[in-house]
Amino acid sequence: MKLSFKPADVFVDRHNGPDAAAVAEMLRTIGVESVDQLINETVPARIRLKHELNLPAALTERQFLHRFKQIAGQNKVFRSFIGLGYHDTQLPPVILRNIMENPGWYTAYTPYQAEIAQGRLEALINYQTMVIDLTGLEIANASLLDEGTAAAEALHMFHGLTKKKNATKFFVSEQVLPQTIDVLRTRATPLGIELIIGDHRTADLADEALFGAIVQYPAADGEVFDYTDFISQAHDHGIMVAVAADLLALTLLTPPGEMGADAVVGNSQRFGVPLGYGGPHAGFLATKDAFKRVIPGRIIGQSVDAAGNKAYRMALQTREQHIRREKATSNICTAQVLLSVIAGMYAVYHGPQRLTQIASNVHLLTRQLSTGLQELGLSLSAEHYFDTVSLALESAELSQALKTELEANGINLRYFGESSVGISLHEKAEVEDVADILRAFAKVLGKPAPAAAELVEAPADLELNWPQSLIRTSEFLTHPVFNTHHAEHELLRYMKQLENKDLSLAHSMISLGSCTMKLNATAEMIPVTWPEIGQLHPFAPREQAQGYAEIFKDLEAWLCEVTGFDAVSLQPNSGAQGEYAGLLVIKAYHEARGDHHRNVALIPASAHGTNPASAAMCGMNIVVVKSTEQGEIDLDDLKEKAEKHSANLSCLMVTYPSTHGVYEESIIDICNLIHEHGGRVYMDGANMNAQVGLTSPANIGADVCHLNLHKTFCIPHGGGGPGVGPIGVVADLAPYLPGHVVVDADGRSGGAVSAAPWGSASILPISYAYIAMMGGEGLKAATQTAILNANYLKARLEEHYPVLYTGAQGRVAHEMILECRHFKKAGIEVEDIAKRLMDYGFHAPTVSFPVAGTLMVEPTESEGKEELDRFCEAMIKIRQEIREVEEGRADAKDNPLKHAPHTAAVLLDAEWTRPYSREQAAYPTDFARRYKFWPSVSRIDSAFGDRNLICACTPIEAYADQEEHLVPTDKGPSY
Length: 975
Ligand SMILES: Cc1ncc(COP(=O)(O)O)c(C=O)c1O
Known about the structure:
The protein is α/β, with parallel strands linked by helices. The chain is built from 30 helices and 25 strands. The protein has a domain at 99-349: 3-Layer(aba) Sandwich (Aspartate Aminotransferase, domain 2), CATH 3.40.640.10. Residues 959-975 have low confidence and may be disordered.
């Protein structure tokens, strides 16, 4: 036997599902000779790249991890007491390993199929309850992208709610975090809203144009104000007030809801979520029940299933802003689910007592610190504070000397203004940290160290010295869930119980069209939880983040190569935020040329709802372009509208390949047409998985596009977030990319769209790893395989489910739409198929987008032939079950589709009166029998939950009263 030496761990073979033998079989089924032939028949020659991607050679997993350790090693992990909304925190190891590092949690999708997502829905309702309890308000959403954008969402919400005719001014306390003010300015300007920035104590609230206000609690310099009077005066003038608040402080401070706030926004990061050099973290927004229909983001609510049991699902979904398209006031789609699950679980683990203890420790250390600073003759700007003190030194030289001295000791503080210093203590702060800080102050001031610096043990017990009105008296987190799982075994088992209720990529393929649920390889995930990646404060001096600088530089360059663009911004925290950022860039470009009137966005009817929502948030006029019967952009309609709006044309937004799963041949002509009319082309890059290495946004003629790194570039969906939506632009648009007020983000001039300069920096290593381990050839092979897998599914399924749209030669891109509307004649809805798939162990494809009543299937390149065949087997068997109904052999209402999904409880009930067997219900295939995934609830009645909205953990006593109401409506499940 001859042995030859070859690398055995080539990553591309692990990422792409089918091996050579499977590829050969699949090609036979499709009816083509080779992958090249398939690609030639699928991707129009006109748009094909003429060159191979120029990326570094692919690394193996081992090589990547070794190399990345060196890069990350250039980051210096200092003790950061910078604050400004970001605080070091102790993620309990049990949560780190069992949620943050656990694919059972991080590979799930947004819980659209609620029956197989009860675990994270429960975790999210815990999070909502935590936010509601701590803020003292009535309703909260399940997360927003960060504190800055949460504040901007409150502004938009108030603007939508106000009855004032000339509502053009929004008051912002000068003590709001600077990055929040930056984001607020970005978001207010396109809507013609002026920010009035000042001291809330002297603000002129009588101005009729003021419709809303925001204040910070505790304020940026640490002062804790009682806002009761301010809020009440604002209300007298018809002004709604948002309070940006710190959740940990709220365990001790009177909640803003009790001061009358209309909304409370903030960041839950310090509840166990690593700093991550800026993100991802879960923002939150809590508000009054009366505003529940306009609250941005997703809300989880309680409802009932077909058996009358309590069940959770996303509530009031038709209220979701982006579904309202051009009428929307928010575009939130992907949010920060994994991070809110972590923050909520941190509260479950610690409970109200331990949380209060953490807050007390932080406060007592801060008191110790301020005593020492005062002993040194320094006066603090805040009279009452929680964890932050600020002071002004005599000169800039002194402040610089302090910075040098502390940095030599590995400590970062906040240095701002001429010579001001801010110090924010956090959960991990120790007495030694306080002593080190005080000694450094003493040294630069040339004074002996104060007594407080000699402290080696815990600070003394002290009375809270805040005015009574600021001291929290109300209880919080009283629900048993926050008072039960405080020992590690308890929490471990609770988290496992929840995880077991959810179907993730760890179970089976999730073929959600437009969502690209591909492999999130373990090697890609490993660096995310390294301290060199996780423990950097976003406003740490850039010299300490040289590793990050290299990651950003490489990743931006690689994404430029993949897209064909000249510059990339990594700042947006989701695809929709990328859309918004990209449209702002186009807007700024027109404005810089004096074309202020160019304000029309052409958007095809088939576009994802976030497209028109983002354009509306930019204050653009949206003109909808029709689709043809083949699912393509109607060229005649486009021409007519481009001509009609030529003078005012800002841009076209186009998804490519289209959400109908085809590469439009005419895309280059479409882009040329828009350019001829002076507009720019925005490409929605959600379908980039069908482009990489074969074509590119620049190649088709686009000027800007966002990439969903949480789709094409392997960042896991986390059950509904985090996401990263960087944008790429052609050279003349580069100057308008987002900048940042606190950190100079490479001299870019645009306003910030996220609170952190590089958005969700700590998950960028995942995409970095993917590109580094795939290399140019591997990325192209992934795209080819994605197209192969989709066309294989088409070949196997089309005789059972007609494929709605195909390209000129009958091929589909990386996804396809399966027709299901004709089953309605037999009373079978597309949702019945989606729910029945759960009994077979699969998550449904995308339901009713972009065409109502259909399924959009995207297998991705990571699924092997065996898994694709299992999925086909399920779909074909379901088709047979539908036929039984169509042909009258099965009852139209009493059949396995209508009763799906089947829970163990239903099947084990002593009584079984259905006309089909228990076996057919639960074990319709051999795969299901061997690897059964049991849905934990039966079909959920969403309408019932929307009529009886409950969005927080209900106390046990309330269940007792409620139980009798927990019955399904006689109309049955309503979808
Ligand atoms: C075509 C398309 N555009 C935009 C988006 C919005 O992206 P995100 O959810 O990251 O905000 C999606 C999300 O699924 C999408 O499918």
